[in-house]
Design a protein that fits this description.
Blueprint lengths: L15 H9 L3 H11 L6 H11 L4
Helix pairs in contact: 1-2
């Protein structure tokens, strides 16, 4: 499995979804879609995204 990092290319906002997709062998589009759909549910999705943005190293 790839290391959990935010890619230098192919990122939209911060690269969190692209990094997660690469780490777990998924398409970045699928991970982005899942994140958007999860925002329709109650919960701390944006806070988790911000925390990952801060904690995940960039390439």
């Amino acid at each position: 499995m790839a290391q959990l990092t935010r890619p230098a290319s192919g990122r939209w906002i911060a690269g969190v979804c692209a990094g997660l997709a690469r780490r777990f062998g998924m398409s970045p589009t699928v991970v982005r879609l899942l994140f958007i759909l999860s925002c329709l549910l109650p919960g701390p999705q944006f806070l988790v995204y911000l925390a990952l943005w801060i904690m995940m190293p960039s390439e």
